[in-house]
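Example A, followed by Example B.
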Amino acid sequence: MQTNPPGCAPDSGRGRAILMLCHFVGMVDLVALPVWVGALVKHYGFDLEHAVMIVTAFLAGAVAASLVAAPLFNRLPRTACVVAGYGVAALAFFGASQATGFGVLVPLHLLAGAAAGMALSVTHGTIGRSANPHKLFAIVGTALGVSAVLFYATVPPAIALHGGSILFKVFAGLMALAAVAALGFPRVASRAEQAGGSGPLPRAAWWAIFGVSSMALNQALTYSMLDRVGIMRGFSQEQVNGLLVVCGLVNLLPAAIAGLLQNRLNPVRVALVAAPLQAALAVTITQSASFTQYALAASVYSAVLIFMHTFLFGLIARLDPSGRALASTPAMMMTGSAIGPALAGAVAMRAGFDGLAVLAAVVGVAATLFFSLVARRTGRVAAVPTI
């Protein structure tokens, strides 16, 4: 039975603040991926393949936990899951900050991912059961963008000064902060608790999930290599770090704009434009010898996924009001993210960045096909006004 304290709803000021923090901490991989891989290569001495395997362990743990938690969402003690999840993740990352060996870092990342994935699944399921999931997801997405700016402005210089272990200490501190804040985790109204909690998910929701997962895979394929692509193209570490700050500033905008355009754009049409656009930007990033082209494409790359995902989050909430599909959001995002870094590292070492470009184009085509199937199932692409 749910144990959340009375009076704290997802749409209250307190509830939104807690959900914003829990969303940012749980989605830290989306922000930190290039810094994470870069630190493991530069400061721990791993090659690309082993570095991304360590990060993949975290993502794989999160995916597994999300797949377990999502179908049980309406029966879980949510406050306990979030507090315990982020608490365990904090301890695991603190342990990682004291380790240097591959054989120790991998299981600690796996544990941290599983614990954080459980907490994030509950967070996203709760957002999906709010009064306006699209709007609330836009709010927490904007908060993620603000936090990303602070992260990029402070963490890479700290790593350069104090070494790679500082990254894991930052992760541990963030997870601990979220665990404490989650003691007041928002509740879902009891009448909604009893509605739509069983039965199969609509077919359109499944195609939407596959499409989002494909775009998350493309995001991870390219973004995990962003630091290494820049350095190997001859750009300086200072230029790449500065670009990451710019990426964070740009990412302040897409979720907020998506929230404002909720009733103006059709979510399926947004997805059908975003998938090929993301693939084109990935090809530009991996193929550009000019820093200007590389930086322009990279600066808006994550924004495409953030903008699209806000619309798809609202669409899936309408297709499945129970919250179970949206509780699987970490699995949607991190299945691609878990496969992406390891796959990108292997492809980059064997086929170079040209191979990454081809792979990004293929995944972009797959994502577009999935969203086309959503359009066929919903039948509303042409029915929504556009600007």
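Example B, a separate protein, is given below in the same form.
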Amino acid sequence: MYCKVSVVIPTYKEVKNIPHITRAVSDALTAAAIDFEIIFVDDNSADGSETAVEQLATSIPVRIIVRKNERGLSTAVVCGIEQAVGEFVVVMDADLSHPAERIPEMIDKLESGQNDFIVGSRYVKGGSLDENWGFFRRFNSLVATWLALPLAHISDPMSGFFAFRKSNMPETHRLSPIGYKIGLELVVKGEFKQPGEVAIHFIDRQYGESKLSWQEQVKYLRHLRRLYQFRFPFLSEFFQFAFVGATGFIIDLSLYLAFQSLFGIQHIFARGMSFWGAASWNWAWNRLLTFSNRKKTRKRIQWPAFVLTSLVGFAFNWGTYVVLTEYVPFFQAHHVYALMVGVLIGLGLNFTFARLLVFRPFEDQIHDEDSQAWSRSGDNK
């Protein structure tokens, strides 16, 4: 069976909304003389959703896929897209927050070639948010949007209302959907050259309960981290390495001061001793965070390798500290500033050695490092 548009709607406990969203989509596309199908992908709600869809299917081209062994909005959307028969795919929420009447305009932009990925945007001219949204919810949405803006050249990368030509769907093995922002994943990992937007008025849900929880927001941050690693692999690792190094500096400084104040150790020797605690801290967090998508070498091998390579950076770090505190009057009176200068000089060397020698990529990551690593991560199971 062929149709022009497949509308994919993920659901969980949305039985009250199903008749309303189905009729809204049907009315909009029928009025525009567009052949369509509606696909609900349900995570085994057991709330009567199947029966509701079966009743609607007598007069509207709608079907439901019930997943019993998998959960999650993003994977539900991918499942629906894979089952779609339409030339174009539209993804939207079931809670009536997305205006179905905007779908024909989205399809027109795709069909004309003006755009290859269309987002229903709250933040372009003419777009708006429900007036019942409070300050915290608006602020939360804006912060989440700002965090994603460098990844996509659209004003509302967080939108769950989007459309594209199915033939442009990225290969599923390249996707690692986690959380609820699959649209952002597709924009970043797809071959879309001309993304565009249509203005929408986003309204609050009328029936059921929101699925957005603090767990989903944590997943979103994890998802963002993955996408930044995919889009900006080198810079992402560098900034994460620098962040870990900044926390390690706190450990380094604390030990450095403690050795002097509590044990009376001379400052140059205290500087040498504090390195070991900071290096161990940095190794553990770089293994867990910065280079989590790389080979998991045995800890008893990787830790000494990291410490030994860090010694090269530390040699420059410590040498700089000694020279500055011995021969530069300002730093003779401000030892902590000399320590900071040394840390910055050693950072570049430590990052280079850690990336190339300690946390080495998998063999098949050499040419496609980020996408292959994340497909093995297990979060898309």
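On Example B: Residues 233-263 form the longest helix (31 residues).
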